[in-house]
């Protein structure tokens, strides 16, 4: 039963306010047993005749009737998705790996079918893999100010609240903190800082190259750099575009769940999951956990993260990664996305 924060209303209240009427409507749409609603409202001090009248009005209100029609359509989508999710429980928990791939095969077997893929030798010729070290990137960028995410450790919803964690720091100070080597999830240069850092970090983009057969155009305008210490975690979420994650330095551990697992992913807000930093979704308990896929990414490897795939990412050591979205196939799905708020 959907809870109501006003359940402690003092006895003797003769009328329901908007919060209580919304509570009734939500619970009726959730098919909550009416006896439970009556008991809860009686405990809150409402007269039984008032409760029964309000329930009758709600059940026959044109707004609720329209909401039930829309709910029926959503229930149909949920049923199909849940069925596909159950079938995945019989599948593999690993992600396919290939050395390289041509455009036709990639597009037909993975991009068009919304399947993840790891490529192990698609970007081996990039200068970044042989040249990059903390000393190298510090010298290449020079004495500039960069934006990063900081103070994340004190905020359970640091990714949702990313705008509140933006800080400007000297590049040398940031690299020095990485060189210290301590495990931390408190500071991290992420895609959320991409717009602010695009020009000052431009020298680093000279060390990247094309990915023939997959990407098109100049990656710098549709790419984002991630740089942080061991222990940084990008909590459970899904993206609004297809993404390519290229590992430059260090190693990352990824856990994925397909869009068919969405009914089990506790998607409470926008593209985020209530599982947050819990990579194994252990709080869900047996029988309610989504089907998860696991992989580690080493320098020179990349993973295709299809749109709608849930993922949790953890850096196993000082890590530099690149995310790219300039695929040869269509990738403007974010334009039709509208559910940015609570769900």
Protein model, in words:
With 343 residues, this protein is of the alpha+beta class. The chain has one domain: Cupin (Jelly Rolls), CATH 2.60.120. The protein has 10 helices and 12 strands. The strands form 3 sheets. A 6-stranded mixed sheet has the order 1-2-10-7-12-5, with no helix packed on it. Strand 1, helix 5 and strand 2 form a beta-alpha-beta unit. Helix 2 packs across helix 3 and helix 7 packs antiparallel against helix 8. It is elongated, with a radius of gyration of 24 Å. The chain starts with 17 loop residues before the first helix and ends in a 19-residue tail after the last strand. 30% of the residues are buried.
Dominant shape: elongated
- What string, H for helix and E for strand, traces the elements in order? HHHHEHEHHEEHHHEEEEEEEE
Q: Strand order across the biggest sheet?
A: 1-2-10-7-12-5
Would you give the CATH topology?
A: Jelly Rolls
Low-confidence stretches: 5-10
Determine the structural class based on helices, strands and strand pairing. alpha+beta
CATH class: Mainly Beta
Total of helices: 10
CATH superfamily assignment? Answer: Cupin
Question: Quick gist of this model?
Answer:
The chain has helices spanning 18-29, 34-43, 48-59, 62-88, 103-111, 128-131, 134-141, 171-180, 194-197, 202-205, and strands spanning 97-98, 117-119, 145-149, 166-170, 223-228, 233-237, 243-249, 252-257, 293-297, 302-305, 310-315, 319-324. The chain has 343 residues and is of the alpha+beta class.
């Amino acid at each position: 039963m959907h809870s109501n924060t006003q359940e402690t209303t003092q006895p003797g209240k003769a009328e329901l306010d908007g919060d209580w009427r919304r509570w009734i409507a939500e619970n009726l749409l959730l098919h909550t047993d009416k006896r439970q609603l009556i008991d809860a409202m009686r405990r809150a001090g409402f007269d039984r005749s008032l409760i029964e009248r309000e329930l009758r009005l709600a059940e026959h209100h044109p707004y609720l009737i329209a909401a039930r029609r829309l709910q029926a359509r959503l229930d149909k989508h949920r049923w199909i998705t849940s069925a596909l999710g159950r079938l995945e429980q019989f599948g593999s928990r690993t992600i396919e790996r290939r050395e390289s791939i041509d455009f036709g095969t990639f597009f037909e077997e993975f991009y068009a079918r919304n399947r993840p893929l790891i490529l192990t030798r698609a970007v081996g010729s990039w200068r970044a893999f042989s040249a990059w070290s903390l000393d190298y990137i510090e010298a290449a960028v020079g004495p500039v100010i960069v934006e990063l995410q900081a103070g994340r450790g004190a905020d359970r919803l640091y990714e949702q609240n990313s705008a509140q964690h933006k800080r400007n720091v000297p590049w040398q100070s940031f690299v020095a903190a990485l060189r210290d080597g301590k495990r931390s999830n408190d500071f991290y240069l992420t895609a959320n800082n991409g717009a602010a850092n695009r020009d000052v970090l431009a020298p680093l983009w000279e060390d990247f190259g094309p990915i023939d057969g997959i990407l098109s155009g100049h990656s710098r305008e549709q790419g984002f750099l991630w740089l942080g210490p061991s222990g940084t975690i990008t909590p459970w979420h899904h993206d609004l575009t297809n993404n390519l994650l290229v590992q430059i330095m260090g190693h990352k551990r990824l856990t994925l769940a397909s869009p068919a697992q969405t009914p089990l992913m506790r998607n409470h807000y926008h593209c985020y999951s209530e599982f947050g930093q819990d990579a194994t979704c252990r709080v869900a308990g047996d029988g309610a956990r989504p089907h998860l896929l696991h992989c580690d990414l080493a320098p020179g490897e990349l993973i295709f993260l299809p749109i709608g795939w849930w993922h949790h990412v953890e850096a196993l050591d000082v890590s530099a990664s690149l995310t790219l979205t300039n695929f040869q196939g269509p990738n403007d799905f974010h334009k039709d996305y509208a559910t940015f708020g609570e769900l």
